[in-house]
Design brief:
Elements lengths: L2 E12 L2 E12 L3 E5 L6 H8 L7 E6 L2 E2 L5 H9 L2 E4 L3 H4 L6 H11 L5 H14 L16 H13 L5 E5 L7 H18 L2 E6 L2 H7 L2 E6 L2 E7 H6 L4 H12 L1
Bound molecules: adenosine-5'-triphosphate.
GO molecular function, one term: lyase activity
Protein name: Phosphonate C-P lyase system protein PhnK
Pfam family, one: ABC_tran
Length: about 250
């Protein structure tokens, strides 16, 4: 498989807090990788460093072989519009709330050069359908949507330009359990159908089990265990992973 993103020897401290300790990770085309761990273990920081939003103190991140932190802001912004997508935990961070649902999807297409209004609207309708938002809501503002619908709209806005890699930070956090399950099914279906690589941060082990081919377990900035999801969850080697898995089983 072709490695899309490779990171090696990442270290980052916030004062006395080691947020990343010698972290290495790679993700290939079409692969879903989950980063799990308790609150404060460094998951979001890792996602921010891997997506170029934050520079590490040491270590490298490469996209298709090019050093991300050497390529400059303009090139990283271009990646964010084209090859990459970002699904935030809070859909309000990924949507424009004063723009209609259709506009939210369509403006991403315009950012990559689409100009034909009819085509853009047609694709917006198609994507609303794919994420199970009724097309009759196309001209409504996202603030009139439920949390689950907003999250599905954020996913449509992110995927409409067919990125190769999508970063997801707790995409089901803060939603009702039944809404979470539906959203996870949707993410799983779309990632398979589109052959997307997904790097998903979650503290929900069940979500990782459902979605991820591989997982990394973080604790205090370190990757304490990684491997195929079924292997890590069915036969955890590190005491911390054993604790995580047994706490879910006991719940
Ligand atoms: N901008 C910052 N300034 C100072 N400390 C920070 C900053 N961002 C994160 N930290 C600290 O770095 C550590 C890792 O934080 P991070 O947000 O990456 O963890 P996390 O695993 O994503 O947690 P959560 O699941 O609660 O979001 C924590 O101790 C956090 O308090």
């Amino acid at each position: 498989m072709t490695a899309l993103l490779t990171a090696h020897g990442l270290n980052l401290r916030f004062g006395a807090i080691p947020a990343l300790v010698d972290v290495s990770i790679d993700i290939s085309a079409g692969e879903v990788v989950a980063i799990v761990g308790e609150s404060g273990s460094g998951k979001t920081t890792l996602l921010r460093v891997l997506s170029g939003m934050m520079a590490p103190d040491a270590g490298t991140v490469r996209w298709l072989g090019d050093d991300l932190h050497a390529m400059g802001e303009a090139a990283r912004r271009r990646l964010m519009r084209t090859d990459w997508g970002f699904v935030h935990q809070n859909p309000r961070d990924g949507l424009r709330l004063n723009v209609s649902a259709g506009g939210n999807v369509g403006e991403r297409l315009m950012a990559v050069g689409a100009r034909h209004y009819g085509n853009i609207r047609e694709q917006a309708i198609e994507w609303l359908r794919r994420v199970e938002v009724d097309a009759s809501r196309i001209d409504d503002l996202p603030r009139t949507f439920s949390g689950g619908m907003q999250q599905r709209l954020q996913i449509a806005r992110t995927l409409v330009t067919r990125p190769r890699l999508v970063f997801m930070d707790e995409p089901t956090g803060g939603l009702d359990v039944s809404v979470q399950a539906r959203l996870l099914d949707l993410i799983r279906g779309l990632s398979r159908e589109l052959g997307l690589a997904v790097l998903i941060v979650t503290h929900d082990i069940a979500a990782a089990r459902l979605l991820a081919d591989r997982m990394l377990v973080m604790r205090r900035g370190e990757v304490v265990e990684q491997g195929l999801t079924d292997r890590v969850l069915d036969d955890p080697q590190h005491p911390y992973t054993q604790l995580l898995v047994s706490s879910v089983l006991a719940a």
